[in-house]
Amino acid sequence: MNTRLAALAVVAVALSACTTASPLKSDPISARWVGQSAGKFFAAYGAQYSDAASGSTTTYNWRGGYKRIKMENGKSASVSCAATLTVSSDYNIRSIRIVADRPGSKGPSYCEELLAPAQG
């Protein structure tokens, strides 16, 4: 019962954050993934660990990118990324919200390095 209430709360929060505006350029993860197929995301980074449907959207909880990286200070660290994806009935990502992140090897966000790598 508590799990259902928690899932419902996650869905409510995710839906309240949905907008029809284009993702901001300051959020490279949203810029990269909003509008893309969730299948493409999960094929690239692994399957979700849970989901909850609400009306015409489904919220997927995902965690992945487990890796040991060398930091700029020369030390190494174990990192991963966790996100909540809100997906429409046509299986396109409507929003992606990072819920757990660590510093990356090149900057403050491992999730950004993993999910929206710089082109070039």
UniProtKB/TrEMBL annotation:
Keyword hit for Signal: yes
Domain of life of the native organism: Bacteria
Signal sequence region: 1-21
UniProt keyword annotations, A-Z: Signal
Protein name as it appears in the record: Lipoprotein
Biological source species: Endobacterium cereale
